[in-house]
User: What shape does this take?
Amino acid sequence: MKKNGYCQSHSDHTLFVKRKLNKVNALIIYIDYMIITGDDFDEILRLQINLVVEFKMKNLGDLKYFLGVKVARSSRGIFLSQRKYVLDLLKETGMLGCKPVDTPIVEKHHLGIYSDQVPVDKGKYQRLVGRLIYLAHTCPHIAYAVSVVSQFMHSPSADHMAAVMHILAYLKSALGKGILYGRHGHLRIEGFTDADWAGDVTDRRSISGYFTFVGGNLVTWRSKKQKVVSRSSAEVEYRGMVQGICEILWLCKLLWGLGFKPKDTMKLYCDNKSARDIVDNPVQHDKTKHVEVDRHFIKEKLERKIVSLLFVTSEEQLTDVLTHAVLM
Assistant: This one.
């Protein structure tokens, strides 16, 4: 790729980009599968010819399927889904005829590691959860549930397996769900962060999550248990804000590499007033010493006007779906 004038992205080492005369082409590769896209069609043809010279390759035409993800185009935009992947998974697990449920995980599930738990087949559990982790690439609505069940890969119980089966039953009712990417006339980068304080019943660590949008389209998301126990909801929200800022900084760097410089300050939305007060208050005190490094990291980005921190009401907080069980 470098021999053909492409630069390897520093944000994603599987991405190669070539810019010439205000046109941009990109190639992204996963093992022996690749996608070529761009607005310089002569360069795309030239690259395909050069690749065939070096490797035994097959041109599959316009992108329709990629690693189990279906790509559908319409006047509204590009729609990504894994419907066939879900149907195959339900068929393999005998859940194709199951009764659908409304949520990926029950509220107040209290899943954890207990001394009296009934063990299940570890290999089967890990394979199922692994399939669900991959499915979450186009299903942000199951990200929280998958994050929970993936915490018990080393010692799964009957309750954990029941939670996995519950996710599959939910997928039965959500076969048509996916992600739509449309044109909204801008490339603004925005993020939402949220956290559920002491949400894990076993070790009281908190669950945090973020959504990020580019041009009004959802591009990345994550639901993850934090590495340390936080002493307050403000502290856990603050740690979650740092994860959100790091993600939108990465997206900004990725867009720069593609030749698209964001024109607006990136926005991060948070619904915790205490966490925002820590940002606004420059005074050092006991409430901030546990997040001192994070505090200075956020402060620097705000002062340089790289990121602006905005308040969003709890009713408009999109990231609730990544931190606890909610009705879809």
